[in-house]
Design a protein that fits this description.
The structure is a single chain. This protein is α/β, with parallel strands linked by helices. The chain has 2 domains: about 5-55 and about 105-305, Glucose Oxidase, domain 1 (3-Layer(bba) Sandwich), CATH 3.50.30.50; about 65-100, no CATH class. Helices cover about 25% and strands about 20% of the residues. It contains 9 helices and 13 strands. The chain has helices spanning about 5-15, 35-45, 150-155, 170-180, 195-200, 205-210, 220-225, 250-260, 270-280, and strands at about 50, 75-80, 90-95, 105, 145-150, 165, 185-190, 210-215, 230, 260-265, 280-285, 295-300, 305. β9 (about 230), α8 (about 250-260) and β10 (about 260-265) form a beta-alpha-beta unit. It is globular, with a radius of gyration of 20 Å.
Length: about 300
């Protein structure tokens, strides 16, 4: 089913196919150049580190709404070493089973398709065995300046409610609150406060709704040449959606048209508290995904250093 005419026109305005060549598989990550990484390094003033990941646990954020996107389950075992007595020398391992996009993760550019194609016009016909192009392993490093947009504090509230459709004007308010200027190649860390539902044990509210970017923000991210954007919700974009004739349209516009990777289930709470305390909302961000060949996404333990 094609987009409605107005969304199709928006898709044409933000389309990045061919911008970095017909063979490009990185999309807006091409905007992370040496200057962007140096801005990130310059933002690490005190050396304070923050993990932005949720823990990998069986009662993680997934509630079964997406088939196959299972929470992490570890299966440990022990075995004797090849020398000495078994009670004296043992090894302890485990295997892991989880959906690659179950916990804190990046959605890769192969994650979404419509009209039979993924980003840059690659056919989605051969995806049964993984992404033949635009696999997550193409992202060998993801290091840049992170800019925290703390939406609740910028809007003077505690947290955004599920279904809050963020606008470009609200993003501008958050940029002003951060006293920052968005530069090409920056990674936006979009705090809504919604992850607190999960941290407080309310998994159902966390999984069933979300505040987040609306269609009104798509051109904002495009015009600011943002390299990637990560949010503290399971769904990323506003849900329930803002209109009935398009389901999760921001995903398709970001991933397919723009080549803009999305992060989900990021925990930005401790970083946001620190930014509120010292007034600095930029950081060095290291958020390289695991190099799963042909992967449509990958878990990540993002680290911000201030």
């Amino acid at each position: 089913m094609p987009f409605p005419d107005d969304i199709a026109a928006l898709a044409a305005r933000v389309n990045n196919w061919g911008r970095w060549g017909d063979d490009d598989q990185l999309g807006t990550l091409n905007l992370i150049d040496d200057a962007a990484r140096q801005r990130g390094v310059a933002a690490a003033i005190d050396g304070r580190p923050f993990s932005l990941a949720l823990p990998w646990v069986p009662d993680g954020p997934q509630m079964g709404f997406v088939p196959g996107r299972d929470n992490p389950v570890a299966k440990p075992w022990s075995f004797a070493a090849s020398f000495g007595e078994p009670d004296d020398f043992m090894w302890h391992d485990e295997s892991f089973s989880m959906g690659t996009q179950a916990a804190t993760h990046w959605d890769g550019l192969g994650h979404a398709s419509y009209r039979g194609v993924i980003y840059n016009g690659t056919s989605d016909a051969d995806m049964a065995n993984g992404a033949p192009r635009c696999g997550i392993e193409q992202v060998t490093t993801l290091v840049s300046r992170g800019v925290l947009l703390d939406m609740p504090r910028a809007l003077g509230i505690d947290r955004l409610d599920g279904g809050h459709a963020l606008t470009g004007d609200e993003l501008d308010q958050a940029v002003a609150h951060a006293r920052a200027t968005i530069e090409p190649g920056d990674v936006i860390l979009l705090r809504t406060g919604h992850v607190r539902h999960y941290l407080e044990g309310d998994n159902l509210t966390y999984a069933a709704s979300a505040p987040g970017p609306s269609l009104q923000t798509v051109e904002w991210f495009h015009s600011h040449d943002v390299a990637a954007v990560a949010a503290d919700s399971l769904i990323f974009e506003v849900f329930p959606g803002e209109r009935e004739d398009a389901t999760l349209p921001v995903h398709f516009l970001h991933l397919v048209e723009m080549g803009l990777m999305q992060g989900q289930n990021w925990n930005l709470e401790a970083l946001a508290d620190d930014c509120a305390a010292d007034g600095r909302h930029t950081c060095l961000l290291e958020a390289t995904p695991e190099p799963l060949v042909g992967g449509f996404g990958s878990p990540v333990n993002p680290v911000a250093i201030k």
